[in-house]
């Protein structure tokens, strides 16, 4: 199992990005969390098999239909990332 972090920039707040990410990650069987950041970006930390994390990363470039993704940046993984569920955290 691997843990990865991502920062997504663009029009990603106020468009259902966190809810879409939770649904997508849950459907993929990943653990982790997503939250809005004060700078207008969204941060995602996910735990799972490498191939599944690759699929999530590819999906993050699209997001929900109302979003516009300009950048998906890899972050250092958060060691406290939940592995048994995917949750939305407060901003």
Concise summary:
By secondary structure, this protein is an alpha+beta fold.
Walk me through the structure.
There is one protein chain. The chain has 91 residues and is of the alpha+beta class. It is 25% helix and 37% strand. A five-stranded mixed β-sheet has the order 4-1-3-2-5. Strand 2 and strand 3 form a beta hairpin. The radius of gyration is 11 Å and the shape is globular.
Structural shape: globular
The amount of helix comes to 25-40%
Please provide the count of β strands: 5
Number of helices: 2
Structural class: alpha+beta
Query: Which blocks of ≥5 consecutive residues have pLDDT under 50?
Result: none
Strand content: 35-45%
What is the ordering of alpha helices and beta strands? EHEEHEE
Secondary structure topology:
Blueprint: E1 2-11, H1 17-28, E2 31-36, E3 42-48, H2 50-60, E4 68-75, E5 86-88
Parallel strand pairs: 2-5
Antiparallel strand pairs: 1-3, 1-4, 2-3
Helix pairs in contact: 1-2
Give descriptors for this structure:
91 residues, alpha+beta, Alpha-Beta Plaits, 5-stranded mixed sheet, 2 helices
């Amino acid at each position: 199992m691997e843990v990865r972090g991502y920062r997504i920039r663009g029009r990603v707040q106020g468009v259902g990005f966190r809810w879409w990410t939770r649904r997508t990650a849950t459907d993929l069987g990943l653990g982790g969390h997503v939250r809005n950041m004060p700078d207008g970006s969204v941060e995602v930390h996910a735990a799972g098999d490498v191939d599944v994390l690759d699929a999530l990363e590819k999906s993050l470039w699209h997001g929900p239909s109302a979003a516009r993704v300009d950048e998906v940046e890899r972050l250092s993984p958060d060691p406290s990332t939940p592995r048994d569920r995917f949750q939305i955290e407060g901003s």
